[in-house]
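#lab-general

N.A. 3:47 PM
ok so I finally got the sequence cleaned up, no stray characters, all 300 residues accounted for. can someone with queue access submit it? mine expired

B.Y. 3:52 PM
send it over

N.A. 3:53 PM
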Amino acid sequence: MILISEMIHPVGLDILSSYEVYYDPDLHQDSNALLSQIARARALIVRNKTQVNAELIERAPLLQVVGRLGVGLDNIHQEVLRERDIGLIVPRGANAISVAEYVIGMAIAFQRHFLRMTLQVRERQWVRDMSGVELAGKTLAVIGYGAAGQAVINRARSFGMKLRIFDPFAEVPGSLKAETVEEALEGADILSLHVPLTHETFHLLNETTLKRLHSHSVVINTARGELIDETALLHALEAKQLGGAILDVREIEPPLQDDRLRMLTNVWSTPHIAGLTEDSQIAIARYVAEGIKEVLDLKR
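B.Y. 4:20 PM
back already:
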């Protein structure tokens, strides 16, 4: 049986139709039901809400492969999977274009004040504000040079932006490479985060590193909310040490009712959807489903 505990595009279900599939997109919310169903599963497909931890894996004696509908792996205990010789399928780069288009699109909209102007016109105000700025000539710092980071860089280049990249684990072109996070952030006009959540990247942006930016800098986070110390970010924004923040991911999702960040006019928030387009979800579902099917077909 193939167990799918979170939402998957129908194309994935079609590919897996020759197997018994138990699909419940809300199953991750019921730990008892999840533990009960995992006992029969040869394959498990998840997004980012299902905790594939040691307890879950221990309750899955038949499990041969796990598919992740996305690229973040902080909800998956990879060491235990390796110990059990359980395969892991991750669709690297499948949503990179969606994320990159979000970053560039939001950067343009934020710098040109499109949201405020739209709301003004809706209220019958016709204010021809000339305070917007172009992306051309501005410095974009990208932390993380994986598929999404590279897609952002490629698109930013066509806008004539100056580029700066930090990633100690990737081969970054020498002319664009920053040796440290601090060097990458120094004076950047726009900062975009594209790294996984690890012990090293937790609160990568904090009270100290945020000071490397300037009063017009805009922070864009489409990776993981925990990369940013949100208390430090709030203080920097309220003190006008930063120009703004575009947050698709948060430390707590959804944010708490008294969350102050989402109430600031210079903070734009979206509900973790940067990589969620019809195109990316088809590509991700197809990649994972075909990988799962290949593993199970070989072990029939």
